[in-house]
Structures
1.
Amino acid sequence: MMDVGVYRLPMAGPDDVSELAKLIDNGTIRAEEVCAIIAQTEGDGYARGYAAMNFELMLSERLGMSREEVSARIPMLMIGLTGGLMSPHYTVFTRREVDAKPTGEKRLALGIKITRVLKPEEYGTAVQARLVAEAVREAMKEAGIERVEDVCCVEVKCPNLTAARLEDARSRGKKCCRTNFAEAGSKSKGASALGVALGLGEVQDADVTDEAVCSNWALYSNVASTSAGNEQVACKVIVMGNSVNSVSKFKIGNGVMQDTLDIEGAREAFRKAGLRCEHDLPEEERQRIATMFINAGADAMGSIRGRRTTMKSDYLVGYQGIFAKAVINAIVGSLVGDTMILASAGYEHQGPLGANLVACIARAE
Amino acid sequence: MMDVGVYRLPMAGPDDVSELAKLIDNGTIRAEEVCAIIAQTEGDGYARGYAAMNFELMLSERLGMSREEVSARIPMLMIGLTGGLMSPHYTVFTRREVDAKPTGEKRLALGIKITRVLKPEEYGTAVQARLVAEAVREAMKEAGIERVEDVCCVEVKCPNLTAARLEDARSRGKKCCRTNFAEAGSKSKGASALGVALGLGEVQDADVTDEAVCSNWALYSNVASTSAGNEQVACKVIVMGNSVNSVSKFKIGNGVMQDTLDIEGAREAFRKAGLRCEHDLPEEERQRIATMFINAGADAMGSIRGRRTTMKSDYLVGYQGIFAKAVINAIVGSLVGDTMILASAGYEHQGPLGANLVACIARAE
Amino acid sequence: MMDVGVYRLPMAGPDDVSELAKLIDNGTIRAEEVCAIIAQTEGDGYARGYAAMNFELMLSERLGMSREEVSARIPMLMIGLTGGLMSPHYTVFTRREVDAKPTGEKRLALGIKITRVLKPEEYGTAVQARLVAEAVREAMKEAGIERVEDVCCVEVKCPNLTAARLEDARSRGKKCCRTNFAEAGSKSKGASALGVALGLGEVQDADVTDEAVCSNWALYSNVASTSAGNEQVACKVIVMGNSVNSVSKFKIGNGVMQDTLDIEGAREAFRKAGLRCEHDLPEEERQRIATMFINAGADAMGSIRGRRTTMKSDYLVGYQGIFAKAVINAIVGSLVGDTMILASAGYEHQGPLGANLVACIARAE
Amino acid sequence: MMDVGVYRLPMAGPDDVSELAKLIDNGTIRAEEVCAIIAQTEGDGYARGYAAMNFELMLSERLGMSREEVSARIPMLMIGLTGGLMSPHYTVFTRREVDAKPTGEKRLALGIKITRVLKPEEYGTAVQARLVAEAVREAMKEAGIERVEDVCCVEVKCPNLTAARLEDARSRGKKCCRTNFAEAGSKSKGASALGVALGLGEVQDADVTDEAVCSNWALYSNVASTSAGNEQVACKVIVMGNSVNSVSKFKIGNGVMQDTLDIEGAREAFRKAGLRCEHDLPEEERQRIATMFINAGADAMGSIRGRRTTMKSDYLVGYQGIFAKAVINAIVGSLVGDTMILASAGYEHQGPLGANLVACIARAE
């Protein structure tokens, strides 16, 4: 049987990995069992790399391997740019095989797969989507999750187009999907999300075409959260769900907030994670929450419930994603009394336009 | 008896006052009865002046008087800088004497007073606080509000220190409370808020000293929202509360959110405004809300419920106020299903540090 | 003969048009002769509208006509967003017919034309370019400028695509060049600049196609500066050059800085305007400068002379245009000892990519 | 005799130290001789730590010592936040004793000293200034610089106040100079600059008091550039000047630009560094420039030569320092045809208010 551990830890800055070091050094966590880290880092994009470097360095000492080996072994998803009440932190997942009896109910299970290295000209295309779809299916299998309905959250980190990569494609006579890096990054995230949708049967194979990426918004996954990074060369896929093959102390649930004010979508996630939640979440149920991941979508829309917002206007241009994350973090934070909730921005095929995808991991009773 | 009308209207930009023009032109609102306008404008600080100029110009045509006369007659509080889900809009208050029987219950009443012109060296001092306190008491009287407990919201617009005013004080051998304009503005807002507290008996007269302003945070008002502007030379005070002398169709309620996640404080405001609200606010009760004003305080704190935020860190420095407004707007917006809620940032003696003050005006049944 | 006056005036804020009012009121300027205003306003985009409104209002009183009539009569180009050493100000042009003898040399002449109203689907297309080209030729004629070599600066204000205009086009079954407003605005500016190039014979008619706009960067004008605004429905064209038919006290010169460090390009403008400038500009020559306009292009490039800049990187995204303006203003400012120089950002066919176009108006000797 | 080497190297990002690694690995630079690194990093404040970490890690491998030992051995001054034409890069200084004859002229010499660890309550006080003054004198001695007139540039990295340090002081019953971290950081930089001035005899000992720090602007150093960091616990002082005891191939010169447009101040630095520069700097002289450091001061002023700027206004608040650096980098860059010039912002006693301090290191002939 699989056993999955979940540790949500605060960080004092992008360079602070001391809480994890402490848990490893005092024996609470075995470094060999760390299988993924998902962090909400403050600061700009470079702070993501800074945080990853600190994790790699600390773990390379504990694991007795090089930084490169750590990087290849443990997927690290660093989500940068905080604002509002967002609280920098990271969630560490551990995984191990244990000799135990099934609990009789489905528990948190995790599968991790990395696609082959993509060529720059494949970024943002149906090729990328199909590679991700395959990785999702394999990760489900690895996790022992049998039904797609039991998958609650799929995190994907995929490559960004860079000047060097664009040049590489050109030198081989190939064309990339976009020459504008921001647009190309959006397409890469979109293709990854469509790949999740395809892997889980949320869309039809025939619909997943190059043209559909970041264009046919009727296609989407309700559990995908994707982000792109210059440092990535392949797509790293983490599938989270519940499985009878897991004896984890945790369960995961998910919900879709159809718009940013739709708190029933968050409550759906609480309930699916096993929390009692009629209206407000009682204090004892709040205590059971281990960690939460939200994919924010408010920046895709210029209005909400008929009210115009200034998400698309010219002041503070470029900060819409931070605001989208800050407001959903605050709203869901007000439901659980805690803002140490990871919020990632990205609307590309990650739920219907304007929706927020909520995943909640809670201690089983 | 006094009758007070409340109209919350959307604006397409700082220059859009068309909705009010329409209501005046079709006879819904009589221009002579417009007594105050409180707006949430998008854009930067200059957009506040732009919006005010548009209101003045439009009303000067309807009222047959000069822009200057309009400006002197109708206090206009323009709150700028929107973010997240905040929706630019304005609330128009009308007031008139009517020959009517008391309703037997307390209804929305409004009093407006403007202090004498302040000298620059008085900004941010106990002198300013006492002038505001006096204006608050007079405005209460004018509103026919008999008990301080019935005052739910006091909006104050006060002067900012400018280079010219600093120079003026210096030329007369006088010293201003600060030479840094941002700090001086903060002190002006703080003195105004202390003035409200003094006027309503929330603090003792002996405690209101020059030194206490922006220093003794144990002193505060639970209903004050103050903002400062370069264009102001005196303090404009709008007192809102409930009175038996009003036959308005509206009631007002207020509550204190002790921190930004404390949604019970918002529910207290709903209930005091006469809305039925056990847990979630039912759809029919939401429909009764006429307008809402929140004074946001999240930017005063670097953490919330033990979780560190990045409000005080070096990225996006200068935008904390916008984030404070955006997150409280989102949280309360999620309770009422609407983000057309005015949010003003300002922590200086406006509630305990980190608190948010909520006022809700709703149709009486 | 034509006489053209030039007045460069400081503004204390977007709402400050007092210097012009003073010059009109004391008889220095006759309001009827004001033919164009080009301003560098601080603050965000809304401050442009705010400034224009103040000009219109002040002039409507002096001219005894409505704001709308003023707006239709006098083109006002408000260039917003200042940074660094940029100093908010405006240049007022006056024009009148005088009974005078030719000076025997070419002097500053101004022609102003407005195209027909464009349909949204025409924005950013060859249709727009050809309308601008025609307006440029007519404005040259009006200015009495006989040779295209004598045209030194063409300022164009053109329409932006808005949600309402996009919807209008759609409702008539028409397609706009882009659905992203930022990209559509860029195309509108590009089409205008290509139009100037066409009107002045800098490009061939056959090259001006829909596809070429914002795509074939080998096509450009060396004297065009274009900006787009939501409030525009047609293209307003101001052609400035030198003509034997003018008896203005001023001359204009222009130069192309091939990159932002190419100060020889600025010196070329000084010399063409009649200033003595071997190396540094002597103090007495600096005093002869009446006003300057620069079209900045640094934001089009991610490097300069082999050195990588961070213009294209992810920090301060959205502010590249301000930085492009601030650095060229500073560099040229250091040559003339004055930073009250208008800088406008826009690389779309306005000079070769990365170039800065400099126009200098100086008192003739 | 001392030999000092200077290597200016580009960086592709805060994590790119490959150029230095290459020079070490191919034998151009001996790792043991690296004595200081001064970098201009892009990104926000965290990117400074990220860059330092990368340098430490790379050098720890080359030097066979721990990162901590590298950090203690080699002062690394990371100056963050780029804008405009600024080009991320770093300058590596090497130093070694050589058996050589004096050249007969003064050449580049370098002295490095670190003060004792300061207590938080000493930050921003005369105690800090005196410690820096002593370190400056010792570093001069170490560098073999005999006269204060031969000191051209003193870079100081000093500690910032943090929440933990403030708490530490409080727990011991001590008061820090400020509780606002930004203000405390400013005072720390100011005390360091006053310390340089004291060490070089630019100010009198009696004038250096706690009260004078960031208050008496008549006191300043014409060669100091100071910056503060949360990671510092002591003041690191790098003194650069010319000495007969050096046989370096380089000379250093400095100049004071009295305001940001005063290019004669930069030319003074060129000439003192041995470059021929009557008006424009000829191409062959430009080629001799090894590296340049500028301390920018434009953000201290709200106007320049009588022209109002928007440095102190409310748009883009918080970015004045970046603009100050961007504009001086551009202006001096236009003189040398290269923007790979380090610009640091800081007005606190670093030259008269509004001045820019320029240091230029050039190859001797």
Note: The CA atoms of residues 133 and 199 of chain A lie 4 Å apart.
2.
Amino acid sequence: MKRYGSVIKIKTKKLEEYKKIHANIWPEVAKMITECNIINYSIFHKDGYLFSYFEYIGKNYESDMAKMAADSTTQEWWDVCMPMQEPLDTRKKGEWWAEMEEVFHQD
Amino acid sequence: MKRYGSVIKIKTKKLEEYKKIHANIWPEVAKMITECNIINYSIFHKDGYLFSYFEYIGKNYESDMAKMAADSTTQEWWDVCMPMQEPLDTRKKGEWWAEMEEVFHQD
């Protein structure tokens, strides 16, 4: 299992809408997350920053992420979510949410 | 079980030292974290922001946090860590790390 922490900004005016749609995520999107071996997935907000935490239990992260990105319902979901977000300028090439570095862990 | 997400800033010049000491956290501090019913505790870094995620499995969070704060070794540890950190101006009264709001979760 590998833990992933990522960060992105949310447009202030879009925060309530973002929270609302995430309180009722589309079932197909939720199902695809599970099928792509992501568990214990949380998103937190403070001061315009969104932080996501999840655990990856599959064997090939890149392959599972490609599978998710190829799913048409997930694409539609992202088309709704992405305009609400503002990615960090410092994100790596190919990233939307910027991956963070794990600096501590205790089970 | 309740999940907690929190955020604080780290002074740029102190990041390497912070990572170093967290790679070898004092055993007494680690033990106290466990005794205070905190599990699956991670800290991530990006662009001067530290994000922490943990799960609380006890019955009285405030009581367990008070227990941790009363532990002399934990106090010494905090004396080392806190000068490296810069709390958010928007944190609530009594907070050091600012608690975030959970806006999404999927098991």
Note: Chain A touches chain B at residues 3, 5, 7, 18-19, 22-23, 25, 30, 33-34, 39-47, 49-51, 53, 88, 90, 98-107 (CB under 8 Å).
